[in-house]
Amino acid sequence: MQKKIKNEEAAQQPEVAQRKESKSNKKKAAIQAKSFGGKPLQPIQTKQKGQPPIQAKGFDGKPLQPIPTKQASQSPIQVKQQPIQRKSNPHGLPHQLQSNMENMGGVDLSDVKVHKNSDKPVQLNAHAYAQGSDIHLAPGQDKHLPHEAWHVVQQKQGRVQATTQMKNSNGKVGVNDNPALEREADVMGEKARQGTQGTTKTEQTNGNTSSTVQMKNAVIQRVPKNSHYGTFTDTTYALQSGDTKLRMVLNFKPNANADSTKVGLTQTVKAIKAGKKATIDPNASTKMAPDGHRIDQHSKYRNPLYATGSEPVTNKDKLESYSTSASWGQHGDKDPHTKVWTDAILKDTPTVSTSNNSSTEFETAAIALEGNDKGTYYGSIKWGWKKDGAGKVTKTTFDAVSKGTPSKNFLKAVKAWNDGTTRGTYAAKADNTPLYDGTLKELGKLKKDDTFIQEKAAEAGGIIYTYGKVTSGTQNTKKGYIKSSDLKDKGDGKNTIDLPLVAVKLTKEANVPLYVDADKKNKAMDLPINTRLKVTGEEKGLHKVEIVDGTNTTKTGYLEKNKIKDE
User: Fold this and answer.
1) pLDDT of 229-248, one tens digit each?
2) 198-233 per-position pLDDT tens digit
3) Torsion angle of C-alpha atoms 99, 101, 102, 103, degrees rounded to 10
4) What CATH superfamily is the domain 504-566?
5) What is the pTM of this model?
6) DSSP-assigned letters across all residues of 432-479
């Protein structure tokens, strides 16, 4: 999903809204511009790099402001086992929680100090953190206190060591993001909160308190995923602002297999809202594959590469000719002298839907833009969020999807994008189409085929609205909101710039012989079932193929025509 938005008609990229959403119990929900499917839905003016978070008044006159995120550091502590002597601590843990924790962990927690409404977690892009005997909770994040309190126990037991480093206002700080310790803190923190201690105690070692930080929903996982051509790293991947946003900063660094000089990033998105497929505006639905996947780009832009925007003066039909915005990312470039690569980067902050049973999934792929590999996909990864029926929000596991050519769903979205156009003129689908003001008060009705120009998109009560100006009919020149589902795109926008579309084939059975030459004298290997490949030629009744995914990506050879099928 994409970036901060600016006036949509002059803006040049997907949009990211950073706002609180209206309460669902209002009879007439005020419409709030909101990031949907990852793009910012706010008025756009001109693209501005490094634009600060948008603060705008809602339609009920209340300011919409970013919500502080939660994150922080921790430090391991080791103490000698001795009788626990509780001390008075007005800023410490609640008495019952402290007592349960001490009995379970065998450590004295009377020195713990809880800092509520702390501004420190956000410096590490965390909701909360524990460091030594200090627990810092960002505003509205008190629910994480039991989890962080158990981190203090772990540190006092001397079981926590720094696994990475992050920067805050005091410089670099050691951070522990061990998944096992995080899971343990979830379980033991909940037991202590409920008072179901059981008989299990954790092991304790002697040692001194360290300065290592343990964070809730830590931004940095740093679990690199390798493709055949390079490495994807989730430099930042964290739920923020009370689980209302998901921040992703993705880096891709090409390796020696990448025979190119410039690499870009593009991604698909599939949004589900309250169990149904959803799109941000009427044009987006025209470039969506039947299963809901589409290229994640603002509907007014021609270039599918994530960090690009408006057209350049020259070479308007070339992917590589478009500039990027630092606030959305950058292309990766290879220095012609040192041969050292700068990373390709994608920066995205999709908003989490207020509706349960919702999700947004992304597949991000690297693609060679210049050099001998131009047009070659360099692998892909997946990420995203999901909200279940109870309203619990979780991140999708950051993981590799392809070593080379992206998935079947990605390629379906590419086909829909290539066949599509940018946002054009909208028209009412039927007579009596309502036009609303910002409080959902009806301003008038459009007749079928009355035209409308979009300026921005918004959401209220789980419904997506398009804001803009009526340009024909009895409501001509009026501005207001129309349900996006009541509008259609007339298809008079500009042609999009194509992405490479690979005709992937699959082996139909196990142990398909791949021959070195068309004479079948030498066999290179036996291919497993469902090996992904593309046909590059034909010789002596055999297909010449290249493997486009998996450990044997780029391997070539010959095989029998009847051994493969369309993916």
Assistant:
1) 999 999 889 998 889 999 99
2) 544 454 444 444 557 766 643 333 568 999 999 999
3) 90
4) SH3 Domains (2.30.30.40)
5) 0.66
6) TEEEE-TTS-EEEEEPTT-EEEEEEEEEETTEEEEEEEE-SSTTTT-E
Tell me whether residue 415 is exposed, middle or buried, using C-beta atoms within 10 angstroms of its C-beta: 0 to 12, 13 to 18, 19 or more. Answer: middle
**Which H or E run includes 191?**
helix 179-194
State the DSSP string of 327-396: TTEE-EEB-TTT-PBPPEEEEE-PBPPSSSSEEEEEEEEEEEEESTTTT-EEEEEEEEEEE-TT--EEEP
Task: Provide the pairing of β-strand 532-539 with 505-507.
Answer: antiparallel
Which residue is associated with the tokens 């910002």? 438
**What residue type is 109 in one-letter code?**
L
Element (H, E) at 410: helix 408-418
Side chain identity at 346, as an amino acid letter?
Answer: L
**Residues 453, 428 contacting (CB under 8 angstroms):** no
Q: Which among 302, 242, 234, 288 has a CA at the least distance from the CA of 121?
A: 242
Q: Residue 166 is encoded by which pair of tokens? A: 């992050």
100 in Cβ contact with 93 (< 8 Å): no
Distance of CA 393 to the CA centre of its chain: 13
Euclidean distance between CA atoms 549 and 531, whole angstroms: 8
pLDDT in tens, 150-201: 999 988 888 887 766 666 656 666 777 777 888 899 899 999 988 865 544 4
Q: How far apart are CA 359 and CA 274, in angstroms?
A: 9
Among 148, 119, 144, CA closest to 213: 148
**Cα(first)–Cα(last) distance of the chain, in Å?**
27
CB atoms within 10 A of CB 529: 11
Q: Name residues whose C-beta falls within 8 Å of residue 15's C-beta, 6 or more positions apart in sequence.
A: 2, 3, 4, 5, 6, 8, 35, 39, 40, 41, 42, 44, 298
C-alpha 268: how far from chain center:
11
In terms of DSSP bridges, do strands 113-115 and 134-137 run parallel, antiparallel, or are they unpaired? parallel
Residue 39's nearest CA partner among 328, 364, 365, 311 is: 328
Cβ neighbours of 220 (radius 10 Å):
23
CA distances from 442 to 28, 39, 463 (A): 12, 27, 16
* Alpha carbon 291 to its chain's center: 19
